[in-house]
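Might I ask for a little of your time on a matter of protein folding? What I wish to show you is a protein chain and, alongside it, a tokenised description of its three-dimensional fold. I should value your view on which stretches of the chain appear to form regular backbone elements. You will find the record immediately after this paragraph:
***
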Amino acid sequence: MEYSTTVTHAALVARLRAAKRPFLTTHFKPDGDAMGSVLALARALRSLGTTVDAVLAGPVDRSIRGLALEGEIRFVDHGLAIPSADCDVAVVLDTGAWSQLEHCRDWLKEHPELVVGIDHHARGDAVAPMRIVDRGCASCTQVLVAVIDEMGVPFGPSARTARNTIAEAIFVGLATDTGWFRFSAADDRVFQLAA
């Protein structure tokens, strides 16, 4: 199966905007890009007044765990992390591999019509029938920039988010997935976005 984009940014954003109770998750044992992706999208949706269930499964390094404010993310160290009964869209970020989604794999397979994916990896499974995959991006957070732009949400501080902004979450993903800007994926677009 070809792992590629199946939907426009506008269609994906329309789906997200229509959601009343989105569930956001990423691969087990999330790194900085995975956490940054979940945080960035959760903050964008919450700025629109949406109630978001953002979940990270497995051990999360303390150096990035502190990026989330109290209650921003539900951390599940062991076991299942499934959406609430009123979930109307499930967004899988920074992975398209069933093997990395054990914490919610069965639920996702039972509800494929609700699953949306946003990723930057070259390979993946049919986790999300509706997905944006941009292999030209250094991180999933870089892919999210276009999605959040389409949402019309500001990246910087606002009255509701004096700190812990969307931009901060985007930066964490960019920095960690480029080895703090040392890897070849850190091209001029990455540096421009980081600035």
Remarks:
- The chain has one domain: 9-194.
- Residues 138 and 185 are 5 Å apart (CA to CA).
- The mean pLDDT is 90.
